[in-house]
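Students often ask why inverse folding is considered easier than folding. One informal answer: many sequences map to the same fold, so there is more than one right answer. In these notes we will look at a single instance of the problem. The structure comes first.
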């Protein structure tokens, strides 16, 4: 297990760092740190280098287009990462709450989906429509799911209204969003990939904030929940099973 002293040593390429607290410990380990007096975030994961580089390239492109996202901070020698360890700028704000915030988040996600030029798929990842016929992509391995859960996930993705694939955030839950006035900050791009934009929009509270007709939103919600079931089945089993119960309910309501 990484101690604060171990982390401080690992962060030496960036300079003297003060580790304040560990703030996550599931798919990645994330710490709040101070680097040269500035609050930052350190994140360690075990993704392949090309998949991590894709994310870091994306963050730079988003920042240059005016999005409020964590920006990679280079080491003293100019490297963006050391293995799977990266240091990212800190985004101020609070978690969204209420109708106005939900609408702001929906607007920002739609801006993301329409604003960036086409990009290649993240190395090692697959879009949900590919996982209808293929088991593995990114953090998903359908072969690990019980047969009923796998069938429900694939049915949800098959029933998703057709949209042009685009870069999506991949996990726009409230904990990954910061509201600062009218500005929306989007954190934790570890699950970003090229996929249907409806997977992001289906994570929003309602059809109004998603900017979708009710029928499309219902299918987007089901597909988004299905993704959570599949991606979390091994790592967060209790959470995944709760979402599976939700997926069953949503699937029953959409059945003819």
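Output (designed amino acids):
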């Amino acid at each position: 297990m990484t101690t604060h002293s171990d982390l401080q040593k690992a962060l030496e390429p960036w300079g003297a760092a003060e580790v304040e607290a560990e703030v996550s410990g599931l798919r990645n380990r994330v710490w709040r740190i101070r680097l040269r007096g500035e609050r930052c975030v350190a994140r360690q994961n075990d993704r392949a280098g090309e998949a991590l580089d894709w994310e870091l390239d994306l963050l730079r492109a988003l920042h240059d287009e005016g999005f409020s996202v964590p920006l990679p901070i280079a080491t003293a020698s100019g490297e963006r990462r050391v293995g799977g360890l990266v240091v990212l700028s800190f985004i101020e704000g609070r978690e969204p709450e209420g109708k106005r915030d939900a609408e702001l988040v929906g607007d920002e996600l739609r801006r993301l989906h329409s604003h960036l030029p086409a990009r290649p798929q993240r190395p090692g990842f697959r879009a949900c429509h590919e996982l209808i016929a293929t088991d593995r992509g990114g953090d998903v391995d359908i072969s690990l799911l019980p047969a009923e859960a796998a069938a429900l996930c694939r049915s949800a993705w098959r029933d998703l209204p057709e949209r042009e694939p685009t870069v999506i955030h991949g996990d726009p839950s409230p904990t990954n969003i910061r509201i600062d006035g009218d500005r929306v900050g989007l954190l934790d791009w570890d699950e970003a990939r090229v996929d249907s934009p409806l997977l992001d929009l289906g994570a929003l509270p309602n059809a109004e904030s998603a900017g979708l007709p009710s029928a499309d939103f219902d299918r987007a919600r089901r597909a988004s929940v299905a993704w959570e079931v599949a991606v979390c089945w091994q790592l967060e089993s209790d959470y995944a099973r709760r979402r599976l119960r939700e997926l069953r309910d949503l699937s029953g309501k959409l059945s003819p």
